[in-house]
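Students often ask why inverse folding is considered easier than folding. One informal answer: many sequences map to the same fold, so there is more than one right answer. In these notes we will look at a single instance of the problem. The structure comes first.
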């Protein structure tokens, strides 16, 4: 009786198809042809639609600069009325000093400005704001990317100190080129006289020609001939102290506290933003706070819009608080030519005046307004 195995068809080796190729091995197609090994398992294939940007290229510089400038203009327009009130509070404008110290005062000040000057009054100085904020935001955004690509060339070099240094250098660079526009903006916003409304050109001319009011010398006391013979040589030996001349230096009033505030503001802003982003990308939070990069599936996931907003708001809150006393000092120095005798105030003299007027609270006048507008500005 024949065995069932004898009637079974002989076993045949399976013929691999031409597409049956695995990484690192050669397989025959059955046609005496050998396919070359495929290394798809070891070589990353660039997904369709992905792009690698060269951060040193002119195209990337122009695109990032334009994006940063437009974002800065939009944010400043949203918070324009609050910015006007904050400048009046910080510079201790005599007409609005009574409103400081409460949120009710902010609303009352905005209502009074609107009643006296209309909607345009709430945006007093906004033209100079836009002239300044576009180059400021563009240069800051551009400079940060450039400094970061140099200081942190790869992920292995990324440390909190390097982030801090990148942010600080970006802030100093942007402020240096746009500071004259900042002074013009503050001086326009500080004006509250109804009879006189300075234009952009007239305020520039006024700032340029500002100089301290000369102090009149008291009439000389009558001296005897013998006393005059003694005093005259001494008086002639004392050099005349020249009055500081007007000029472009007037557009840099308050520049020293600005530089001093770059480290706590610009540096801490970028540092806390990146750090908050790392926290939100933690494996525990990542499923809720991140989403796949639509342009490059192999790239790290990006933060969702609300998580990016949260990181930006947190960064602005911390940096605003750390640098706010210097901001108040800067505002008082910037309007120094329009109040008092017009002489240039130093940081120590200005800080002493603020302390004598209001104590430590004087260094945080208007901080609540800064907190309120920090989300659209920082995020």
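Output (designed amino acids):
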């Amino acid at each position: 009786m024949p065995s069932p195995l004898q009637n079974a068809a002989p076993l045949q080796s399976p013929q691999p198809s031409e597409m049956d190729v695995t990484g690192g091995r050669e397989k025959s197609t059955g046609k005496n042809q050998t396919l070359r090994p495929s290394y798809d398992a070891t070589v990353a294939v660039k997904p369709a639609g992905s792009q690698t940007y060269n951060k040193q290229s002119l195209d990337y510089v122009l695109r990032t600069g334009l994006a940063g400038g437009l974002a800065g203009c939009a944010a400043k327009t949203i918070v324009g009325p609050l910015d006007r009130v904050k400048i009046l509070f910080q510079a201790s404008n005599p007409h609005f000093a009574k409103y400081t110290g409460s949120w009710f005062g902010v609303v009352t000040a905005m209502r009074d400005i609107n009643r006296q000057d209309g909607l345009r009054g709430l945006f007093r100085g906004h033209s100079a704001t836009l002239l300044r904020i576009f180059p400021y935001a563009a240069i800051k955004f551009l400079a940060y990317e450039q400094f970061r690509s140099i200081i942190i060339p790869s992920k292995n070099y990324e440390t909190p100190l390097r982030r801090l240094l990148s942010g600080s250098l970006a802030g100093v660079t942007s402020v240096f080129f746009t500071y004259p526009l900042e002074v013009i903006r503050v001086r326009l916003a500080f004006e509250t006289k109804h009879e006189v409304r300075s234009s952009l050109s007239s305020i520039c001319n006024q700032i340029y020609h500002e100089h301290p009011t000369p102090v009149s010398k008291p009439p000389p006391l009558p001296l005897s001939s013998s006393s005059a013979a003694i005093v005259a040589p001494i008086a002639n030996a004392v050099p005349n102290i020249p009055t500081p001349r007007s000029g472009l230096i007037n557009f840099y009033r308050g520049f020293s506290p600005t530089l001093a505030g770059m480290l706590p503001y610009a540096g801490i802003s970028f540092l806390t933003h990146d750090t908050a982003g790392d926290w939100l990308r933690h494996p525990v939070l990542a499923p809720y706070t991140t989403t796949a990069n639509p342009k490059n599936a192999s790239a790290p996931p990006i933060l969702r819009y609300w998580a990016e907003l949260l990181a930006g708001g947190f960064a602005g809150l911390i940096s605003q608080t750390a640098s706010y006393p210097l901001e108040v000092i800067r505002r008082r120095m910037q309007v120094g030519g329009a109040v008092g005798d017009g002489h240039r105030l130093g940081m120590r003299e200005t800080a002493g005046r603020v302390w004598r007027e209001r104590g430590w609270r004087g260094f945080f006048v208007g901080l609540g307004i800064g907190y309120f507008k920090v989300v659209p500005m920082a995020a």
